[in-house]
Fold:
Amino acid sequence: PSEDGIFRVTTLSRTHPVKRLERLLILLKELEIYCKFTIHYFHIGYGEELYNLKKLSEELKFKKFKIYFKGNLSSYELKKFFKKTPCDAFLNVSTSEGTSMALIESLSYSIPAIVTNVGGNKKIGKYLETLLHVDYSSQDLNFYFEKLYFNQEYMKKLRELSYIYWDINHNEEKIKD
Structure:
């Protein structure tokens, strides 16, 4: 977790309209107006929308928040990122999703996941109690962000539950039989 007062959020996906990263950027800009703390948002991945997302980020002129586009990372670089970069929440805000391997990997690092109520996200979001409505708002994001930022016991509990969910359902060493 972050220890410097900055709340760090990560997404990991291809940059495709179904992932709704444009909507996320717009809602983060709206949230910047009333959020009580600084957010650093990292997107890992590339695709057809990456250029447009970078351009939108510049046009939105974030002042309090910082936006980072990390691009495509190798498996080694991704593991290094998750091990070395503090991360307070992993977001999956797609309109349609199977079971996201990126989401599963984030849980293996005990990163709390906040997800839209679609496809494979539903089971994880219900378990963690961090489901967003498909048409979520900046207030919905703020609800979970503040809950994690201001309540260290909740953050700790959600980190533990994230790892437990991964360990029970996706730990290859346990489920290969």
About this structure: The chain is about 50% helix and 15% strand.
